[in-house]
Amino acid sequence: MKAIDFRFRPNTPDAVDGLIHSPFFGDMCAFFNYPDRAWSASLDKIVEIMDEHEITGVITGRDVETTYGCPCSNMGVVEMMRAYPHKFYGMAGLDPHKGMQAIDELSRMVNEFGMKGASIDPYLAKLPADHRKFYPIYAKCCELKVPVVISTGPGTRVPGAIMGDASPARVDEVARDFPDLTIVMSHGGYPYVQEACMVCHRNANVYMEWSEYETWPFADGYVKAGNELIPDKLIFASAHPFYDSWERAKLYETLGFRPDVLENVLYNNAARILGIA
């Protein structure tokens, strides 16, 4: 069954090295022994495997220069999109602390390079999703008619970050203030499973993927909600390269989704957001 992976970063050697030695995820990688199990490959090889498994990737850019000193990765995403336009869609990573510079970056990435939307990370920005610094980004997304991916996962052992900034309850505020904005909560607001499911259920414009946390305690709540409340709101994502995209897609077939819901989760819901057939 074909799939769209809504949180995919190719595990090229530079990308893997960057994760392992990053000032925000370095401690987490060490804690989960990621350096010992990480593998890297050429982009050509990665795409070959993706083609074999009928997987398309949405690459979320990142800009956390203000808080962690890591500059914007958007042009790297553009290079991958250009190399494999049939395989990768991009979301422009934005730093809310940069003000109008971030707005200009979003416009440039969408209008000049064909990115599909914006990507923000309140946890790494050290601001909740409903902070006023994010609001110009949301407004620009509405103007451009593109979605925003809001990371809502409190990564383990990230220095200086607090879990409250990743709360899905703050996304509920954003959905209220921007009812025309399509929002994708990334990482499912874990561990606030029930809250995240209700934010999707009560807001027509909110979707969710729960990459990395599919087998963690209480994660069966996502599956139950998908089958009973929000079959058109859940989206497959792997958080590749922390987990292999193709192996994670196989995992979803064992989680207990109804066949029609599984098809929505793996492909249809994401395709609708991206505006593709």
TrEMBL record:
<protein>
    <recommendedName>
        <fullName>Amidohydrolase-related domain-containing protein</fullName>
    </recommendedName>
</protein>
<keyword id="KW-0456">Lyase</keyword>
<dbReference type="InterPro" id="IPR032466">
    <property type="entry name" value="Metal_Hydrolase"/>
</dbReference>
<dbReference type="InterPro" id="IPR032465">
    <property type="entry name" value="ACMSD"/>
</dbReference>
<feature type="domain" description="Amidohydrolase-related">
    <location>
        <begin position="70"/>
        <end position="276"/>
    </location>
</feature>
<dbReference type="GO" id="GO:0016787">
    <property type="term" value="F:hydrolase activity"/>
</dbReference>
<dbReference type="GO" id="GO:0016831">
    <property type="term" value="F:carboxy-lyase activity"/>
</dbReference>
<dbReference type="Pfam" id="PF04909">
    <property type="entry name" value="Amidohydro_2"/>
</dbReference>
<dbReference type="InterPro" id="IPR006680">
    <property type="entry name" value="Amidohydro-rel"/>
</dbReference>
